[in-house]
Amino acid sequence: MSTINIGPIRCETGTKVSGMVPAVSRVDGSNLGFPVIVVNGAKDGPVLLVDGGIHGDEQEGTLSIIEVAKKLDPKNLRGTFIGVPVMNVGAFEAMSRGNPRDTHTFDMNRIYPGKPEGYLTDRIAQVHNEEVGKLADLEITIHSGGNICYLGETIFTKSGDDKSLELARAMGEGWEIILDTPHPVGSPMAAMVDRGKISITVELGGSATLMPDALKHNVDVLERAVLNVCRHYDMIDGDATYADTAWRGSQIAVMASKSGILLPNPDLPRNKLKKPITEGEVLLTLADFFGETVEELKAPCTGVLFGFRTYPSTTAGDWTLFCGRAERKSMV
Predict the structure, then answer these.
(1) Calpha distance 298→269 (Å, rounded)
(2) Percent of the chain with pLDDT strictly greater than 70
(3) Confidence class of residue 1 from pLDDT cuts 50, 70 and 90?
């Protein structure tokens, strides 16, 4: 492998380096950029980029990237691992989906790869794209349900892209929902695909599981998946494992048509997560301040449930259910 240069970061072959990449200046003269961890293998192989924290309220990717980098020994690595634990530091600081300082391009996952003369988040996205994204052969962007939802292990790929499907399968056992992306433009995955490279978007977690034991579980699941990807592409020693079947199809997100309080239910949808659903079955209920039902939120299709709202206060137009119009298919 050759030396990896990302902004001021220089990582020689067979070494591990981390640092901050500057993007824009704050009023006090400090820089708002993003952290990068590079593990540059001693031998040739692919460049795997793993991005986290494109939404600041989604911490699972941040922690799993740090853990993966700790596990990788550059002397035994074939290829290069590049981890960006937090793409959107301003959003992370605010514990928010986007940076509150930017009211124009708030959601980095809708405006990527940004532009150098754009709004605040545009400029940060553009630096990430030019300094990091262009180096990668393979890219995984890690998301979760953030402050308002919980999402089980789900992967989004470009429809009909066999190489992206291979990367999805390389995530291994437990990752058994693989859907066509609902965002064909504006995301890191879309930019990578436009380059002719291989990319997926993955989902796991949400604020409902940020207690230490639950968070550690999800971080461990993500860490194992990324290391499984490394084994699949022969970046590290060991045999990769795979799911035999997966739900294949497309996403349908159910939005509330009325406002209310999401009622707790000990059985649904938790016991339905990542399991079959039937069109029309009631999965969640909204009530008014007096406990009267104002809306029943129903499965929009026959398929699989992979996520649901966990924040009780709900306004018309809010996401409530994440479903896949999908069928179980062999991945062997």
Answers:
(1) 11
(2) 100
(3) low
Distance CA 187, CA 178 (A): 17
What is the separation of C-alpha 206 from the centre of its chain, rounded to a whole number of angstroms? 11
Helix runs in the chain, H state only: 60-71, 89-94, 108-111, 120-131, 162-170, 188-194, 212-232
- Kindly report the CATH class assigned to 247-330: mainly beta
Is the separation of the CB atoms in 187 and 155 below 8 Å?
no
Q: Is the dihedral of CA 73, 74, 75, 78 positive or negative?
A: positive
Cis before 113 (ω within 30): yes
| Architecture of the domain delimited by 4-243 | 3-Layer(aba) Sandwich (3.40)
Q: Where are the domains of the chain?
A: 4-243, 247-330
Q: Are 169 and 92 in contact (CB under 8 A)?
A: no
Interval 268-291 mean pLDDT:
94
CA distance 156 to 164: 9
Beta bridge partners of 17: 38
Instruction: Provide the whole-model pTM.
Output: 0.97
At 276, list the tokens: 């079959």
Residues 154-191 as b/e (b if ≥16 CB within 10 A, e otherwise) read: bbbbbeebeebbebbbbbbebbbbbbbbeeeebbbbbb
Residue 270 is classified by DSSP as G
- Give per-residue pLDDT as tens, 10-25: 999 999 999 999 999 9
Mean pLDDT of 309-324: 97
The closest alpha carbon to 177, from 149, 147, 148, 157, belongs to 157
Span 217-240, average pLDDT: 98
Looking from the CA of 195 toward its CB, the CA atoms found within 13 Å total: 19
- What pLDDT score does 271 carry? 87
